[in-house]
Amino acid sequence: MPPFTTLPDLALRTLGGSVVAASDESFAEKESLIKPGRPGFLAETFGHKGQVYDGWETRRRREPGHDWALVRLGLPGVIRGVVIDTAWFKGNYPPYASVEAAAVGGHPSPAELLAAPWTEIVPRAGLKGDAEHHFEVADETRYTHVRLNIHPDGGVARLRVHGEVRPDLSVYEGLGLDLAALANGGLVTACSDDFYSAPNNVISPGLARHQAEGWETARRRDGGNDWLLVRLAGRGVLALAEIDTTNLLFNAPAAVSLTGIDGDREIELLPRTRLQPDTPHRFPLRHRDPVTHVRVDIYPDGGLARVRLHGHLA
Question: What are the Allantoicase domain coordinates in residue numbering (predicted)?
């Protein structure tokens, strides 16, 4: 897999993404494009519109032109790569596709989006049926929306838009916020182990519904401990840490510690502290020096559902 696929999917529905409009969705609904998880398929499952597909499928065009879908990114940011997945579409996939992006402030309507200036970030490229197609993007612009164009018609199972979150934090001026949150620009930049699930899950929006929506490591046999490193949304002063082990019943860590990092300086924010399984923990932090990163150490291994680090931008 290309390195960009380790970055968050900015369009994902569970991160607030939305398919706001499409030229057509006669066979299968546009909303499936940004669903989490792999596309499913059950052969010979027919509805009123034909075979049921877990994806977006348009009619067969009998006129010039091409089909398109407008996607609002749940997390605006810099796009590093796009994945167009035609899983299960074998005789009805589009032979070509392209992707455009736009930066539109406020809460635009579909008509306003269509009238906005668009930049091509993935030139028209050939597609295969039942396959993932990876396209790297070299563009440092912050975007809020993308448009998937398929030429001329057909079905796409998933659209993934991987990148780095660039929110507008000015709305929090004078207020506290979760400086670790993915939605605010936080990012897990390193971790000791991601055997069971991705570390960026712990800073995702909302609550984890089950173990797979948190971060869980393999069982350690070497006497060490697992850890992850969070790059904060900005240099800031932290006042409260939330360490949530919800859903981790028999695989929660025994303890946790937090270390702030500012340049080459390390600051103990939370000494090694006992954790309980399946429990949201809240720990006041007394240190008032600003930091840019926080290392979360768990002892010796296990899983966390969420990590929240509340404070103020310095």
Answer: 16-165, 185-313
- Looking at the fold, whether 151 and 23 belong to one and the same domain comes out as yes
Instruction: Kindly report the pTM of this predicted structure.
Output: 0.85
Cα 42 to Cα 52, 75, 87, 205, distances in angstroms:
8, 32, 12, 31
CA-CA distances (angstroms) from residue 18 to 7, 147, 309? 19, 12, 27
Q: Which residue has the tokens 């027919």?
A: 46
The pair of three-digit structure tokens given for residue 233, joined into one six-digit string: 């949304």
Q: What is the CATH number of the domain that holds 83?
A: 2.60.120.260
| Residue 221 pLDDT | 93
pLDDT confidence of residue 54: 87
163-183: pLDDT as tens digits: 999 998 887 878 899 999 999
Same domain, residue pair 85 and 159: yes
Q: Which of 251, 247, 246, 181 is nearest to 217 (CA)?
A: 251
**Phi, then psi, of 251 in degrees rounded to 5:** -140, 25
The count of structural domains within the chain is 2
Same domain? 12 vs 157: yes
Q: In terms of domains, do 226 and 137 share one?
A: no
Residues 228 and 291 in one domain: yes
Does one domain contain both 180 and 159?
A: no
Residue count (the chain)? 314
